[in-house]
Amino acid sequence: MKNDEKALRVKYVRALEKFTNSAVNALKREDFDLTLFRERMQKNAKIFEKVQAVFLDSTYTKALELFVNECLDESLDQKTLTSKANALYKLKNNQSYKKDKHKIKFKDEY
């Protein structure tokens, strides 16, 4: 049972990341058009019809889900979505780095 939940969660997170990568690539284009972006996001939202939504616990995955919902929101513009995408990538990268004082090697030297 636990493996099934994990598999569902992985599929859902991968779908969220696939949607997010597509949205970010569209937002960064030089010839950005808001109507084409909205059409593309509605088309990409069909990914979620195949995948079951799952409860997400980490801050990054919650932010990922929030960004996807904001991309599907009609009221936000390119600048707002781009800044939210940058904050999302900052959050993702922040989790992969540790400060020196938290590393074991640093503790051995003192």
Automatic annotation (TrEMBL):
- This protein is called what? Uncharacterized protein
Lineage summary: Bacteria, Pseudomonadati, Campylobacterota, Epsilonproteobacteria, Campylobacterales
